[in-house]
Write a structure and sequence with these properties.
elongated; Serine Threonine Protein Phosphatase 5, Tetratricopeptide repeat; Glutaredoxin; 2 domains; 5-stranded mixed beta sheet
Length: 303
């Protein structure tokens, strides 16, 4: 499973207007229940405030496209014969309820949404499509982790101007409490366990990096930067100075110091510094501008 978005729609890659027009022409036809007794969609012409609903090809216009003009709509495609898609449907329903209706989940059984699935050119289940402003804006295909879905939805909601309450994972909260209380062994165990169950979680990676930093902090000399500057070839001094600079809010200077070490070292020493840099990057997070800049410089040095 992945925490990354494997594919995205380009600005005009998919146009659902033809499907919408077809449904508009069918509105005057007598309503027929789908074969097999599929759940009927909630009515309301796209009224906001609905947490989750079932949709079919016949109700996409009102329940997805029109609704997406007022709120973010996440459509999950599922099928009984694809257990992972059923799990994704249930997970997203739980997330939708946790977010209190900030966005709407549309559950689309592929048996009754074949036209929509074809229009979106879906290739795998589960498939999760974000609709905003009447258009598809992003797509996930294949199994995803809960953490990955949370991050994906949060990013989409922010782009759409939707206020999604931040959900605090109780396991992460416990690990952070341990760290705040100075219980570093317990914090490390908790973060490590969470990371094993949620690979790629930047919160857990950042937590582990902070725990390791706190372990080293107690042994740092107050003049670590002066010592490293006086002896540029002393690798241990350089690593200590970088830690002190991070703790002092001088992250860019710390990154520059260690990148300079990578540039002149080789073998195990170089790999040691590279790993420390990656660890320090994770403390700030992948979206930090200083991290982005330092990663580019590190790549230039390495390759």
């Amino acid at each position: 499973m992945s925490d990354n978005v494997p594919s995205r729609f380009s600005g005009s890659a998919v146009d659902l207007s033809a499907l919408a027009a077809q449904q508009q022409r069918q509105q005057n036809a007598p309503a027929q229940p789908p074969p097999g007794g599929a759940p009927a969609a909630a009515s309301g012409g796209g009224a906001p405030g609905v947490v989750a609903l079932d949709v079919t090809d016949a109700t996409v216009q009102s329940e997805v496209l029109e609704r997406s003009l007022n709120t973010l709509v996440i459509v999950v495609f599922w099928a009984e014969q694809a257990p992972e898609s059923v799990q994704a449907r249930d997970l997203l329903q739980r997330l939708a309820h946790a977010d209190g209706g900030a966005w709407t989940l549309a559950k689309a059984d592929v048996q009754y949404n074949q036209q929509l699935a074809a229009a979106l050119q879906l290739q795998a289940l589960p498939a999760v499509v974000a609709i905003a402003g009447g258009r598809p804006v992003d797509l996930l295909q294949g199994p995803q982790t809960e953490q990955g879905l949370r991050q994906w939805i949060a990013g989409l909601a922010q782009a759409a101007g939707v206020d999604v309450p931040q959900q605090v994972d109780p396991e992460l909260a416990l690990a952070e409490d341990h760290m705040a209380n100075g219980e570093l062994d317990a914090a490390e165990t908790a973060f490590d366990k969470y990371l094993k169950n949620n690979p790629g979680s930047f919160e857990a990676e950042s937590g582990l990096a902070q725990v390791r930093m706190l372990r080293r902090a107690g042994a740092l000399p107050q003049d670590a930067v002066r010592i490293a500057d006086a002896d540029p070839d002393n690798l241990d001094a350089a690593l200590a100075a970088a830690d002190l600079q991070i703790l002092s809010g001088q992250a860019e200077e710390a990154y520059e110091r260690l990148i300079a070490q990578v540039a002149k070292l080789a073998g195990e020493d170089r790999e040691r510094v590279r790993k420390r840099l990656v660890e320090l990057f994770s403390i700030a997070g992948p979206d930090d501008p200083a991290v982005t800049k330092a990663r580019r410089k590190l790549s230039m040095v390495l390759f």
